Amino acid sequence: MEALTRVTDIVKRLKETRLNALRPPTEFFDFHRISRPGDVNQAVSRISYNTRYFSANYMFIVAILGVYALLTSPLLLFSLAFLTGGFAAINKFAPDPVQVGDHVITQKSLYTGLFVIGIPLLWLSSPFMTFFWLVGASSCLILGHACLIEPGIESEYTSIQESV
After folding, report:
1. Which of 19, 100, 146, 160 has the most CB atoms less than 10 A away?
2. DSSP 61
C-alpha cells in the first residue's frame, strides 16, 4: 500500500511539472513554420532552442515510443513481467524459509531459480536492441523536428531576457 501511495505522489508531481509544460499540438505540428535551415549554425541554434521549448513534448514522444517498443516485443514484455512478478511474489509470499520434505527452500534459492530462468529469457528478448531502437528512433524524430521547425518570435526575446 505504501508503494502505491509513493507511485501516486510521483505521478502527481510529474503531472504538475512536466505535463503542464506540454505545448499544444497546433503549436507542435505547425506546418507553416517548417523550413530548411540555411546552414549548420542555424540548424544548431534551432535544435538548441526547440529542444528546450518543446522538451515536454519530446519526452512524451520518447514515452510513446517506449510503450510501442514494449507492446511490439511480447517476449520482452513477458520477461520483464516475469522478473518483476517473481521479485514481488518472493518478497510477499516467501520471506521465511519453507520446509518441503527433506529440503529447505530459502529466499536465496528462490531468487537463484528466478535468475536462472529470468536472465536467459530476458537475454533472448533482446532488450539492448529495443533500447538502441528507442534511442535511434526518438533521436531521429526529435532532431528532425527541432531542426525543421523555425523558432517563434518569442525566441528573439529570450536572449534579451537572459542578458538583463
Report:
1. 146
2. H
